[in-house]
Amino acid sequence: MTRLDFDRSKALEHQIQLLTLKKEHLENLIDFARGIKLIGVKTMNFKAFDKSKIDEYAKQAKEQWGKTEAFKEFEEKDKNRSEEDMKLITENFMNLFVEFGKLQELGVEQEDVKNQVQKLQNYITEHFYTCTPEILKGLGQMYAGGGDFTENINKVGGSGCAEFTAKAIEFWV
Please, are residues 55 and 15 in contact by the beta-carbon 8 Å criterion? Predict the structure, then answer.
């Protein structure tokens, strides 16, 4: 795959889906442990430990983007992270959209919105891979493009947050 054939937005979408799966897995383990603590167990149900969905998703992402620089950069940053680290990174990433939701009434041209767009770009660069203005613009389109991204962003940031974030990115990039 050449650099020109690489769809960075799609790659980040896959990375976020993988992080979300890891977060869900960790939350299932926590719920399982809490259940044991509260009621004890007579028989063990190991469903909470199943990582097959995460493993399959990671395999697909690596097959599709494993040779790209962005994927290599993500892998390098991800290789020493614990599940707790991943949970925290995912939560902090989603909190960026909570902040976008609070800014919706201001309008995209406001300086506070510009600062939030910059925070998002910096966060992606720090935790995933280098987020150029071109990549950020593509991500904004993806955020408002419907599906899981739009739904999850609007869930944490409030109705219309994904669309607002996309407009803010478009305005400031």
Answer: no
pLDDT recorded at residue 35 = 59
In tens, the pLDDT along 57-69 reads 556 666 656 666 7
Residue 157's alpha-carbon distances to 21, 28, 64, 67, 92, in angstroms, are: 20, 24, 31, 34, 13
In angstroms, the CA 86 to CA 109 distance is 33
Q: How far apart are CA 13 and CA 149, in angstroms?
A: 8
Written as one string, the DSSP assignment of 34-90 is HHHHHH--SS--GGGG--HHHHHHHHHHHHHHTTSHHHHHHHHHHTT--HHHHHHHH
Task: Give the model confidence (pLDDT) of 7-33 as tens digits.
Answer: 777 777 777 877 887 787 677 667 666
Distance from C-alpha of 123 to C-alpha of 104, rounded to nearest angstrom = 20
Q: Which residues fall within 8 angstroms of residue 100, CB to CB, at 6 or more apart? A: 113, 116, 120, 153, 157, 161, 164, 165, 168
Condensed to tens digits (0 to 9), the pLDDT of residues 77-108 reads: 888 888 889 889 989 999 999 999 999 999 99
